[in-house]
Amino acid sequence: MRYLFPFFLLVSFCSTAQGVTVMDFVQVKEGRRAEAVYFYENNWKVYRDIALKKGFILSYRLEEVVADSAAGFNLVLITEYRDSVFYHNSETNFREILSTARPNGPLLLNKLQPADFRTNLFVTITRNLFRSYPASYTTENPGHLEYP
Q: Alpha-carbon Rg of the chain, whole angstroms?
């Protein structure tokens, strides 16, 4: 019996999924903030709203760097996956979403292509060790949306 406790502890530990977060750091080209925000709001956000509803992702955020930051980037796009399985399937899942949501390609402001208004500097992938959730988090609201 004393050998079963470590076994159950190991099984419990291994079955606990660790979230995976992908952060894209983007530099917006001078004078092109409107095009960048339009692009992310009308494409990136739309794709993630669909992925959220389908359960492919846990949450997403688009953060803008404050003016006093010395960073070489302006935007941080954050997508959180439930675990590494969902992360590894993200390419396939998002390919399906993109082909359905925007079969003719992304919506663009002033017909500028993404390379004309932004530069993707680097991507960081992190593994969640622990975290807190907002009070509004439930399985019905996995994107942690705060409701009034």
A: 19
Strands 20-28 and 118-127: antiparallel
CATH number of the domain that residue 38 is part of:
3.30.70.100
pLDDT tens by residue, 113-128: 999 999 999 999 999 8
Where do we find the tokens 């009034």? 148
Number of domains forming the structure of the chain? 1
Stronger pLDDT, 139 or 85, i.e. the higher one = 85
Interaxial angle between packed helices 45-54 and 90-101, expressed in degrees from 0 to 180 and rounded to the nearest 10:
120
This prediction has a pTM of 0.78
Query: What residues make up the domain containing 119?
Result: 18-127
Is 147 domain-assigned? no
